[in-house]
Amino acid sequence: MRQTNTTITGQIPEIPALSSARKAGLLALLLLGMMSGTYAQSHDSEDTLKALPANAFNLSLLQNTGSQFKIEITNNTGDSIHPFFVELFAIGFDFSQDCILQQTINNINLETNIEKLWGPQFISLGVGDLPPSGKFVSTLGTVTSDPGSMMKVRLFGTVNHQNVIWVGYLKK
Fold it and tell me: pTM of the full predicted structure?
């Protein structure tokens, strides 16, 4: 048997040279792709959600009985919030069937909402506008209540064309 030290290599077929028109087209496509990506990224800051500090709102429990309670939310931001949305999540209790009993802003009854959704453990209200130092008060009906029950409150809105959020907890 004969032994050799030469290696056998395969040949790679040659890739036909790209024409200058194809090169220019690929370069243009690459540049357009980069420009559109840069353009899309430049507008991300307008759609961001800003978390407000803990002292932006005061959350108080004004009344607490077995079948209802009254909460007050005070705007401490110094700016009007428009639109103003309130989400309430029940923890350890349930809301009644017709749980939204009364709502006011600065002692003026709210007749309509821009949003009003509710269930046994969730309420979402859109009240329109909450001015600086404005007070939103709502009386809510409950069915059950466990010891140590509480409520998570999330507030959304727009301040100076910036979307904002605030989260607080209230022991019932």
Answer: 0.71
